[in-house]
Amino acid sequence: MPTIRDIMGFHNVDRLVYEKLIMHRTPLVLARDIVCLFMWLDQMTAIDVARSILSIRNPSAIVSLVNEAEGILNYLQQDVDNTNSFHDFPCLTSLLNRCIDTSFFDIHKEQLQKSLMHKLNGVGRVIFYDPYYEILHAYDTSVKIAEQDVSRRGRMPMIPACPTELTRPYRFPPEIAAPEDDKSIFINPLAEGGMVDFA
């Protein structure tokens, strides 16, 4: 079964996008929702959305992207029939190299809503939880210090054990089922139950 640290490693780029949005003064809750939206788009388009966003250096482009993503999230929350309310999203269209407009989200609305809830209540409890990253940073620092000590003294390193907070198994909340199209894909084989838990 994957550990908390496994989840952090697998979703490292998503965490970096989250931190980038925070640096651009995106509210915390909105930043979480946007990252989950980007994760879904990554799965739907087979394009590495997160890495594409990390490559953006223009602050105004980030702001425009955040505004579009917020518009999509607000659009999804409307209960009325949206078929006559058309909007396009030029930043996302450019980023994904395909037309992204409200009709795209109308088609996938129910699936996307379920996916966002699934991610927020699943891996979101790990990748948006700052104390885990503080623990990991402290651990990585201690490992580097131990390795530097080895290079100076020429002896076997005394690598500290990974904190138990990060080595415990990651368990997805049992009351929330993973949507069929919302499974993560792995190179290393895992048991079927592990794949669902890891999504």
Automatic annotation (TrEMBL):
It comes from the Eukaryota. This is Uncharacterized protein. It comes from Carex littledalei.
